[in-house]
Description:
This protein is mainly alpha-helical. It is built from 7 helices and 3 strands, in the order ααααααββαβ.
Amino acid sequence: MTLDAESRQSTYLEYLPAIFQQSIEEEGAAFVGRFLLAFERILTGFDVATEDGIEPGIERKLDHIHTYFDPATTPSDFLPWLAGWVAFTLREDWSEDEKRRLISRIVPLYRKRGTKAGLKELLEIYAETEVQINEFRDPMQVASHSTIGEDTILGAAPAHHFQVIMTLVNPDYVDFTRKEQIARAIIDREKPAHTTYDLIVDIPTMQIGGFSTIAKDTLLGRHK
């Protein structure tokens, strides 16, 4: 359905005072009807399909104003404002889905800010993958803390140091680099200022029945 600029008349004509309706001649009515279309377009919009590229009018936007406050339904160009409402800064290199997901879950995380649990949950929300954080506070314990390079280090651990292991399944080079950089940025922003860390991006190696298809979900060796 399209608008015919020559024949379409504004529905606002029927709301004119009776004295104006009686005095408008046929040619005048055509002009006034087209003139009022501009106001009708802005204020209430037209009853046309959205695929025509015609945005809804102000009245219809107000009828659906609640959708602007939901991260899942708000227009993409409204996301930065919505993020500002909850004191959250969006990165330009985040995808739209990542922005919506993080905004929707950031408020409950403020109660955990600066904690191991809060950092782990924020990274998992962003990356949609498993994240492990080791603090090396416990000595080596067989069957509990006993894997060198994973949850155990030889000698005394640096003070206030932790290790983050993030698992990525079958990332390409661009995705791997982007997620690693963003993960570091999140850690740098959320960790306590006096702490240091190592980030290990773990790509699962071949596991029969789990990750076993070459060039799809398997990498020979381990990337750190």
